User: What shape does this take?
Amino acid sequence: YGHAVTVFERAERAGGLLTYGIPNMKLDKETVQRRVDLMEAEGISFVTGAEVDAAAISETVEGFDATVLAIGSTVPNNLPIPGRDLDGIVYAMEFLTRNQKALFANPPALLTTEVTPEVGLTSKYGGGFISAKGKHVVVIGGGDTGTDCIGTSLRHGCKSLINFELFPAPPDEQDKRGEASGNPWPLWPRIMRVDYGHEEASHRFGADPRTYSVLSKEFVSDGAGRVRAVKTVQVEVGPDGRFAEVEGSEREHPADLVILAMGFRHPEQEIVRALRLETDQRSNAKASTSDYKTSAPGVFAAGDCRRGQSLVVWAINEGRGVAKSVDAYLGGKG
Assistant: This one.
């Protein structure tokens, strides 16, 4: 009973964000590989280093009885302010992925926090390693990804570190009644939390790296095409719910490396367009959780490419759900 399953993965290793986007100190890659090995032992075939692009997707779909799109939500939110084209401004996933590929290329580097020519923390993949060593690092955006960028920069040996958040600092405790905050119990409490990166930065530099209600206005050039600073202004939420700049609050923060960790917009659209899939208002593949079927016959979608950027637990849940739907589609019991 069952079906022959082939997974096409464009990276050199299976695991997606678990492998490349979550740092080792948070998720050991041996744990991920163990799960991949178990699936291979069950008969699943992983074809890595294989990008199924727009030109190949139709042929790929025709070669299988059913196709599941689990391509994630990988188009990041940008920050199109003056100076955005300067060198030294990178997306969070670019920073984290290149760091992980460098560690895969040179396993001894896992045993040290020093980034030196002797250790050789350089990557043969993706255009090279992005180092934060000795740099003034600015991380724009919070959440898990921002925290991972903080933790990784600390391990590189950054000179200073600051994390900008646009919204005001959350309260220390949840409003139990909820009239004022709109976040009453038993909803998930939106309160101030200290993650591992914040704690480590506090230990290294003596203070929490996060600063709230900050709007980035301009990336400042060093005159040679690289970023040297970020101009910001404080903002406050007005009665109409909109942000308003606070007069006289302009600042310039030194920055040799700026990491944009502001979330993701939608999946890459090449495959979506090639298959002429219907999409929702956010350009995700349109499919319901009742059967995960897209508008293309025999094509299913699950995970972030269907629901938008979310958590690993939702990816697991949708993976199981789409597997049942595909089995039912192929004549099984579902």
User: Anything to note?
Assistant: Residues 115-126 have pLDDT under 50 and may be disordered.
